[in-house]
Amino acid sequence: MDLTMFIFLAIAYIMVIHFAMGIANYFNVFIFLVYFIIGGVIGWYLGSYLAGFVFAMVVSFILWNDISM
User: Fold this and answer.
1) Contact present, 33 and 18 (Cβ < 8 Å)
2) Is residue 27, in this structure, part of any structural domain at all?
3) What is the domain range of residue 39?
4) Residues paired with residue 67 on neighbouring β-strands, in sequence order
5) Keywords assigned by UniProt (predicted)?
6) Is 69 domain-assigned?
7) Distances from the Cα of 30 to the Cαs of 10, 33, 46, in angstroms?
8) Is 53 among the domain residues?
9) pTM for the full predicted model
């Protein structure tokens, strides 16, 4: 996985979570963006953007809060 694929998948994941799961406010979207930026940095450091993507997904699921469905 290269950087452009990581960015595409991160945007797609955030859009699905935002629209399908109903994130209540825009601050949570900003937090999700920060998770994926950190995941991208970790992926760059490890040489595997897939590892960074999985890290960002796991962190976003673990730290999920204030979601109204």
Assistant:
1) no
2) yes
3) 3-62
4) 23
5) Membrane, Transmembrane, Transmembrane helix
6) no
7) 13, 5, 24
8) yes
9) 0.77
